[in-house]
Structures are given as C-alpha cells and as structure tokens.
Amino acid sequence: MKYIKYIALAAFFACGVCSCSEDSLDDQSVFSTEAPQRNEFDIWLLNNYVYPYNIDFKYRMEDKESDHDYNLTPADYDKSVAMAKLVKFLWIDAYTEVMGDRTFICTLGPKMIHLVGSPAYDEGQITLGTAEGGLKVTLYNVNTLDPHNPDIEVLNFWYFKTMHHEFTHILHQTVEFPKEFYEVSTGRYTGAGWVNITDEKALKRGFITNYASTEVHEDFAETVANYVTHDEAWWQQQLSIAGDGASYIDQKLELAKSYMTETWNIDLESLRDIVQRRSSEVVRLDLTNLND
C-alpha cells in the first residue's frame, strides 16, 4: 500500500507542478489522425475478411505477432494474395456454406490469420501452424505456394489440414468434446514420442496420424481435420492399413461426428462433401486477380 500511495503522491505532485507552468498545451495530438495508406490487397481484405467476418488477415511481418523462437521471413505479396483467396474459398466459405450463413465463423472463427513466409524449424521438426487461445491462427511456409499451379494435396498438407485442425481446437476449447472420446485410447498415447512413430504404426495403434497419438486433444483435432480434407477412398485405405486399430479410429470418428452435430449443428459428412467439392475446384481459381 505504501508503494501505491507513493505513486499517487508523485502523480499529484507532477500535476501540481504542471498546473503552475505558464506553458500552453500543444493543440496537435500525439496520435495520428490520418487514414492508413492501403493498397489494393488491403482493401480486398477489408471487404472479404474484416467487414463480413471480423477477421484481421495479417500478411506483413510484424515483430510482435511472430514467434521469436524461430528464424522467420515475411510472406511474399503474391503468395499472400493467393493464400487469402484460398483460405476464404476452402475454409471460410466451406463453413459458411454448411451452416447457411456467416454467423458461425463471425462468432467462433479466429480473429486473426497470420502468414509467415518461411517454415518454423525446431530441432528437425517443422511446425505447420499454431492457434493461440482461439484468437489467432498462424500459417507457415507460405512462400512455397505456387499460385499458378495449386496442388490440393500440397495445400492440405501445409495449410488446410492445419486450418481445420486448429479450428477444431477452437471449438473444443469453447465446448469440450464428450468424455467417451478420452476413454477410447486411454493408455495408448505417446506424448513427445510421436516423432518416433510412423503413420503406419500409429494407424495400427488406433490413431489416424502419428501426431494424433500425442494426446487426446490432438487426437480429436487430427480425426476431424483428416476426415474433412480427405475423400472416402483415402479414409478407407487408412482403415485397411490400421487393421485391428481401425476399430479405435471408427469409434473416435463417430464420437467426433456426434459432437459436431449435437454441439455445433454441423453435419461432418456434409462439411466433408463441401470441402472435397471445393478442393476439386481449386485448379480453376484465379489466385492472382483481386477483382475476380
């Protein structure tokens, strides 16, 4: 309390000294009142992200938004334009279509999508993306994107499986998934040891990917993300490889479907159909023209 009183007295004294001064106040504000200079892409982002969805799409490198544990480089302008169009078409518009309006993404979507040009390396591992408290999603390695030859498998590996994965985290952090999901693979999770397990071995242990074997929340997010970004032929192939592990994956998928329907009124089958249809249309998109 003495410290607080001291600060208060110091502030009072400073005010008293100032009040005795005959100097007039400067009528110029220390805060800039000029409108920011926006390029064509900035205006497009306002109209396609900020105004309709209240999402700040950051493509310029900002020190405060970047993870200082990594040596990172900014996203190129043309790659950022392409990524902004892809995220809207493959992710935002997919959820808007399945829900029937923009309310769901406006309410639960991340408030910031942040692009980084380079990968995030950490002792031989690469971070594909991060989500922070349901407010911000960061996508890395944007500068490898080819706007003129988009390959959906590459796009899903680096970006869109990540987008669905991180958004699933946002959903279960808002309303947790059923406890039954915790029980399916109890005692089978590997923690940090997931890096030493191949996807094939993970499948046989009852996990859709090796990263899903980390812990239960990653398992849930990987189950949803891989289901919607792959077609039925791929999913059945994974179950075939899994053998006895397929029963664990099936149980977790059914629990994930029930959760999405009962909690968020999302039919995961319908969402998957929409994502798959849009994925097939990516090759026809103009990822360079902001007027398209």
TrEMBL record:
SUPFAM superfamilies given in the database record: Metalloproteases ('zincins'), catalytic domain
InterPro entries (alphabetical): LP_HExxH_w_TonB (IPR030890)
UniProt feature coiled coil, ranges: none
Protein name: Zinc-binding metallopeptidase
Biological source species: Bacteroides faecis
Cross-referenced Pfam families: Peptidase_Mx1
